[in-house]
Amino acid sequence: MTAAPAIDMFRLLGGRERFAADWEQLLTGAGFHLDRIRPTPGPRCVIEATHQPVNKPSSAA
What we know:
Layout lengths: L3 H10 L6 H10 L2 E8 L5 E7 L10
Antiparallel strand pairs: 1-2
GO molecular function: methyltransferase activity
Organism: Kitasatospora kifunensis
Protein name: Methyltransferase
């Protein structure tokens, strides 16, 4: 495996490498809780997250 795909991601798509704190912030902002990050063989990982429903105040009639 070469670094070419990663370089293309940065150059063409404005991508960046994310760390655990980055994923936690991103997921929290989208209404999820980061449960864990599981490493896998190779350069990728599995991110496990749980949806945290937003409790909207009910309108009083």
